[in-house]
Amino acid sequence: MLRRFLAILILVVSLSWNLGVIDASAGDEDPRYRVCVKECKETGCVGETCFPYCKFSSNDATIDGTWFILEPLYCQSDCCYHCMIDREKEREALLGSAPLKYHGKWPFKRVYGIQEPASVIFSLLNLAMNFHGWLSFFILVNYKLPLKGDKKAYYEFASLWHIYGLLTMNSWLWSAVSHCRDVELMEKLDYSSTVVLLGYSLIVAILRSCNLRDDAARVMVTAPVLAFVTTHIMFQNFYKLNYGWNMIVCVFMAVLQLLIWAIFGRVTRHPSRWKLWLVVVAGGLSMLLKICDFPPYEGYVDAHALWHATTVPLTYIWWSFVRDDAAFRTMNLLKKAK
Ligand SMILES: [Zn+2]
C-alpha cells in the first residue's frame, strides 16, 4: 500500500514538474491579442467598451512598466480581460477550438466583476471551515480537556496548531481576494501566503510525527525550512515571479508532508490514524485535479476551482484529527502522571 502510494506521489511530482516548466500561455502570445492590449492601453477602449480610468495621452507613459505604475492596477487587468474575451469569441466562431491560456490563466467569464467566482466561493468555504476547525480545537484544548496546574494545556502541540489555524485562514483569505481579480499584487500575496502555509505545515508535520518536544530539536527543524521559504518568497516577490518554479516548490513541500503523515499513519497506533490516511490519500488524489488543469466549463468552473472544492471536506476531517490528537495525547499524559 505504502509503496503504491509512493509511486503515485512520484508520478504527481514528475507531472507537475513537466507542467511547471512548460507554463503554457499560448493566448497572450497571439499577435492579435497583443495589438488589442496595446491599443487599449493607448485609447482606453476595446471595441465599443471604454474604461474612463484608463484614458490618458500616449505621451504620459509608453513603456509598459511606467504605464503600470501610473495607472490604477485594474486598468491593465480590464484591458487584458476584454481583449481576451474578444479574442476567445473570435477563435470560437472561426475555429471552434478549445480555449487558450492567457498569462498562465484560463479565460473566465466575470460574474458581478468577479473573475473566478467558483474559486472565490470555494476559497471562502475553506476559510469558514478552517475557522470552525480552529475554534473547536481552541475550545477543546482550553475548556473541555483537563489543564495542568499552571492552567496550561497538556497537549504539547497546541500552540503549533493555533499558528497553523491563523496561517490557513490568512492563506484562504488571499486566495479568495486574488481569484476576484487578476492583479499582480494580490497574486503575489496569495502565492506568498500559500508558500508560508506549506512551509509551516511541513514543520508541523515533522515536529508532530517525530514527537519533537524540546526546543533545541524544534529549532533544528524550523530554521532550515524557514530559511528556504523566506529565500523563495524574496526571490518571487522582489526578483522574478516564476509560476513554474513556484509550482514545483509548492508541490514538493505538499508531497513531502503528505509522505511524512503517510509514514506516521503507517507506524503509529494512533486511534484516529484512519482520518490521517483519508486526508493523505484524498489530498494526494485531489492534487491530480490541480495538475489536470482543464479549462473552465462554460467559462465558470475549472480544475483549480474543483481542487479548492475538494479541500473543504478534507479540512473538516483534518481538524477533527487534530482534535482527536489533542484528546489522545492529553489522556496519555494524564495516565503517565498518575
Ligand atoms: Zn486558487
UniProtKB/TrEMBL annotation:
User: Among its keywords, does the record have Transit peptide?
Assistant: no
Endpoints of the signal sequence: 1-24
| Segments traversing the membrane | 120-141, 153-177, 189-207, 219-239, 245-264, 276-297, 303-322
Family annotation (InterPro entries) = Per1-like (IPR007217)
Keywords attached to this Swiss-Prot or TrEMBL record, sorted alphabetically, are: Golgi apparatus, GPI-anchor biosynthesis, Membrane, Signal, Transmembrane, Transmembrane helix
Main location, first listed in the record: membrane
Q: Where found? A: Endomembrane system; Golgi apparatus membrane
Top-level lineage group = Eukaryota
* Molecular functions per Gene Ontology: hydrolase activity, acting on ester bonds
Q: Name one GO cellular component term.
A: Golgi membrane
Single biological process term from Gene Ontology: GPI anchor biosynthetic process
Entry membrane topology: Multi-pass membrane protein
Q: Which family does it belong to?
A: Belongs to the PGAP3 family.
What is its biological role? Involved in the lipid remodeling steps of GPI-anchor maturation.
Name assigned to this protein: Post-GPI attachment to proteins factor 3
Q: List the source organism.
A: Cannabis sativa
